[in-house]
Every structure is written in structure tokens, then in C-alpha cells.
Design brief:
Elements lengths: L6 E6 L3 H12 L3 E7 L3 H11 L2 E3 L2 H5 L6 E4 L6 H10 L3 E4 L7 H13 L4 E3 L7 H11 L6 E9 L4 H5 L14 H17 L2 E9 L11 E8 L4 E7 L11 E6 L2 E6 L2 E7 L6 H8 L17 H17 L7 H19 L5 E2 L13
Parallel strand pairs: 1-2, 1-4, 2-3, 4-5, 5-6, 7-10
Antiparallel strand pairs: 7-11, 8-9, 8-14, 9-10, 11-12, 12-13
Helix pairs in contact: 1-10, 4-5, 5-11, 6-8, 8-11
């Protein structure tokens, strides 16, 4: 068991993601695991016993646990709001898995509750903490690419039918909030937004191409117009078979340079005006040929990336600042995806952002 130094964490939801959260907390600086919660006491006790902490199946008792400072939420996406609001009202800081919630109204309620109670709300979009993404971001922000002309995200992943059949909530609008885009591609969409900025409008098509008994899309393509004038494409799928998985890619091109990324690797780093350090960037972050992180197996993710999110949240609390990925930032990728769904369900019509409200959603076919 880890020494109880730093702020005390509690995990809400003791499924697969809860176990990743526990590993990240165990490895992080200035934080330790205090307790866990799940409506299924058996699941809570299993995780609690592994780390020598207290298990709860009643949420109010969990929130009253002595030494609990921060709650991490890893339950089905459409159930985040109630847990987050109650935690905020109990004066607990909140770190919430992606998507932070599945409707704009629920996210706004979470943001409001955390602000009212003086606690932080942090979203888990760990790709922003990749060193290679920071390098990418600096190149964009310092103008090395010139006028940004194209900005694209590609997430061609695979999930089995058994994946969707597990648990009964996957692939539903009520609890999953969407399919390949909302559940799998959202990290890469957040990365694209982080690099390029606000989206002005989208046109999209989506369908359920290769799975059964779900309401949501397993394949989607969208064309984006960014407010800075760049055009882009988002492609997301859980119906692109691969034994090892295809890496998630982000491509940004401009009048004076181009950068392509695949997962953590930089595959293209090409500029009209090269700098002496460019060779070192490719040597450090060049593609090592690894399979896509979580592309074919949702369990194949690295808890180290969650650790970065958790440590930033603790630093934000210590420094009295907002976390790097606060509620408002976490809301952006959800809004882009909801706009894509609205366009796709309307046969590809153009949808402008920001959205006034969450669109009405229905099953894809």
C-alpha cells in the first residue's frame, strides 16, 4: 500500500477504467488512494482489497470518508453529472473521464456546481500532456506552419460485437452518448481542437456499418471549417478491422510546414524554413512502429497518461488555478461531436457552432 502523502483520492466506478485510475494514483506524486465506490459492492471490494483501502456501495457514505479530497469518475458516460454534482456539493474536487458528459446541459450543470462550491472540474484528455503534442502545439502557436490550411483527425479502430454486448449500456444514446466518435475518437478530436482552435461549422455522414443491436454510429466522416479559415476532416470508426490496431492520427498542414502525428509519434515534421533542432525532434518522437494505443483492445492503454492528468489537477488545487483541461475545455470536443451527429442525422446539412442546445438524437442505420 502506498504511503498516505498528498491529497486523498476516491474512485467512482470500479470497472476497467477504475483500475486504470487506481494504478495512476498509485504512481503519481502528491496523491494517494483513500477509498472506492461502486453500486456493486463486490466490484468495489475487489478494487479496494487490491490497494488496501475502504470500499463503499452507498455514495453519501463514500463522500463522507475522512481524508477524501478528490473524486475521479469512471462510470458510464451518461451517468457522470449526478456523481459530479453531489461530489461538488460535498466540497470534493472532481476529475471526470471522457466524455465529461454526453449533453451540453449536463456539462454546464457540472461546471456550475463545481464553481459554486469552489472545487475544480478536470476532464481526462490525456493526449494534451504528450511531450510530442506539446512540441506540435508550440510549432503551431509560433507560426512555423504559416497559414493553417488543413487539419485532420483519423481514428480507424476496431471493436468486436462482444464489446458492445457487454453491460447493456454500450452503444446507447442514454449512457454511451454516441459511438465511434463520442467514445473512441473523442481524445483525438480534443487534440485537434487543442491544436487548431474553434470550429465554425461541420457537415457529416455517419452510419451503423458492421455491428448489431446498438443505436449509435460505428463509422462517421465529417468535414470541418475552423474559425481561422482552415478546412479539415474527422474520420472515426470502430469497424476498421486490424489485429494490432491502427494508430490515431492528426495531420496539420500550412503554407510553410506540415506536421503529422500517429498516437505519440511524429511521422512528418517538415518546414519551408528548417531549424537546427528539427532533426532532434524526429529522432526523439519519430514513429517506432507500435500498434495504436487502445485501437483494437480497449484495455491496451497506459495509466501513465492518466497520471499526468491527475498530477496537473493536484497542482491546480495547490496553486489555486484552473486545471489544464477544465470543464469548459472538456465541453469543446463533446460539442463538436454533437454537431457532427446533428449534421449526419439531417443527411449531411451544415451545422454551425456553437450549438444552442444538445440536438435530438436517434438511432443510426
Amino acid at each position: 500500500m502506498k504511503d498516505k502523502s498528498g491529497l486523498g483520492f476516491g474512485i467512482v466506478g470500479c470497472g476497467m477504467i477504475g483500475h486504470f485510475h487506481a494504478k495512476a494514483i498509485q504512481a503519481m506524486q502528491d496523491g494517494h488512494l483513500e477509498c472506492v465506490f461502486d453500486l456493486r459492492m463486490e466490484a468495489a471490494e475487489k478494487l479496494a482489497n487490491e490497494y488496501g483501502v475502504k470500499a463503499y456501495s452507498k455514495y453519501e457514505e463514500f463522500l463522507a470518508h475522512p481524508g477524501l479530497d478528490i473524486v475521479t469518475i469512471g462510470t458510464p458516460s451518461g451517468s457522470h453529472m449526478e456523481s459530479a454534482v453531489k461530489a461538488a456539493e460535498a466540497k470534493k474536487h472532481v476529475i471526470c473521464e471522457k466524455p465529461v458528459e454526453i449533453t451540453l446541459e449536463k456539462i454546464d450543470a457540472m461546471i456550475a456546481a463545481c464553481k459554486k462550491n469552489g472545487v475544480i472540474l478536470a476532464g481526462v484528455h490525456q493526449r494534451r500532456f504528450f511531450d510530442s503534442v506539446k512540441e506540435f502545439k508550440q510549432a503551431v502557436d509560433t507560426g512555423r506552419l504559416g497559414t493553417i490550411t488543413m487539419a485532420d483527425a483519423y481514428v480507424k479502430w476496431y471493436r468486436t460485437q462482444e464489446y458492445y454486448d457487454q453491460g447493456g449500456w454500450r452503444g446507447t444514446w442514454k449512457l454511451d452518448g454516441g459511438g465511434a466518435l463520442m467514445n473512441q475518437a473523442i481524445h483525438t478530436i480534443d487534440q485537434l481542437y487543442y491544436l487548431i482552435g474553434e470550429v465554425e461549422s461541420v457537415c457529416a455522414f455517419a452510419r451503423l456499418a458492421a455491428h448489431e443491436r446498438i443505436e449509435v454510429e460505428d463509422t462517421a466522416v465529417a468535414v470541418l471549417r475552423f474559425k481561422n479559415g482552415a478546412l479539415g476532416v474527422i474520420e472515426g470508426s470502430t469497424a476498421a478491422f486490424s489485429n494490432k490496431g491502427h494508430g490515431a492520427e492528426v495531420h496539420v498542414c500550412g503554407s510553410e510546414g506540415s506536421i503529422f502525428m500517429k498516437d505519440k509519434s511524429i511521422t512528418v515534421w517538415d518546414f519551408k524554413n528548417p531549424l537546427p533542432g528539427d532533426v532532434a525532434v524526429l529522432e526523439k518522437y519519430g514513429d517506432k512502429g507500435a500498434a495504436g494505443v487502445g485501437a483494437a483492445d480497449p484495455k491496451a492503454i497506459n495509466f501513465e497518461d492518466h497520471k499526468n492528468v491527475f498530477e496537473d489537477a493536484v497542482k491546480a488545487i495547490r496553486d489555486g488555478r484552473e486545471p489544464a483541461i477544465n470543464g469548459e475545455q472538456s465541453r469543446k470536443s463533446v460539442e463538436i461531436i454533437l454537431a457532427i451527429y446533428e449534421s449526419a442525422l439531417a443527411g449531411g446539412k451544415s451545422v454551425s457552432l456553437p450549438l444552442k442546445k444538445t440536438p435530438e438524437l436517434r438511432a443510426f442505420n
